[in-house]
Request: fold
Amino acid sequence: MTDLQKLSLKIAALTAVASAALVGCGKKEEPAPAPAPAPVASAPAPAPKPEPLKIAFAYVGPVGDGGWTFAHDNGRKALEKEFGDKIKTSFVENVPESADAERVIRDLATEGKNKLIFGTTFGYMEPMLKVAADIKDVKFEHATGYKTAENMRTYDSRTYEGAYMAGVIAGKMTTTNTLGVVGSIPIPEVIRNINAFTLGAQSSNPKVKTKVVWVNGWFDPPKETEAATSLINGGADVLFQNTDSPAVLKTAEAKGKRAFGWDSDMTAYGPKAHLASAVINWGPYYIKATQEALDGKWTGGTNAWWGVKEGAIDIVSIAEDVPAETKAKVEEVKKGLADGSFVIWKGPITDNTGKVQVAKDATADDKFLGGLNFFVKGVEGKVPGAK
Reply:
């Protein structure tokens, strides 16, 4: 064996020994570790849902009165339909116009945690004003009043527009030329309606006269029935009202006379007697006021007075036997009230003593109407308490 062969065998032996040593130590080539998975981004937590705006209504009568309070409650329902779960509404009915009103309104603001409160009758003005002064973070809305505060404002509907249109029909439909009105409380709002009804009737029939019987309350069906009966016995064959129940229409139905619905469509209460209903739609104003509150744009100290123009007043369900020309005249008046081309309180207008209250071609402004305390020519009697 040559030296070269000996060297080759020696190298091979050393390589075998080295390989055996590596195996004995457990050494082997490890695979590269897999890369860690990328973190999954979590969805952001949903923003907490805002609490609904709590809104309360104080009603002077029952929601089922078929008239004034029923119309307000329809407005409340229109709110719920418009805003859904953004608001939460509630109401208290039969709240008297007395010291008890303050307790109820205060409870609505404190215990009920309401932030927007509507008081829906004139007699709540002073109680609401007092509560508003004590609870500044609540917004107060008062119907038909005139006093305001930083966090209290007033709203009203031009019900005299509906009264005038009803008068246009009454003047044409009477056969005795004697109309009867069941009056609630002798405040400017009611006096305006009696006068407007008479002015409308005179536009159709200059011979008409109007008799008034007061019940000194808004909702008192027995007294309203008694007053309506008295007017019929006095010769009135068409009745009008500024009270909240359908008692006047029911009485006319029972005695074979004609009458109007007031504040809401009262057709169903006396279908044979019913000539038309002068209605109020509070929904548009309630929606506007609530939207302002939700948007942080509500401001106190203001007054709103809406009529046909704003969609708050209408006359509906005119009887089939009303002549076509009379219906056309009512539509003409309605259109004129909507676009401003017709004015009810344009002179000359005299009171029933012969005194000129609105000069020829002059137009009475809202300030004048807000303090109105006389009967126009054609209305019998004197306004209670007027000088």
Notes: The mean pLDDT is 91.
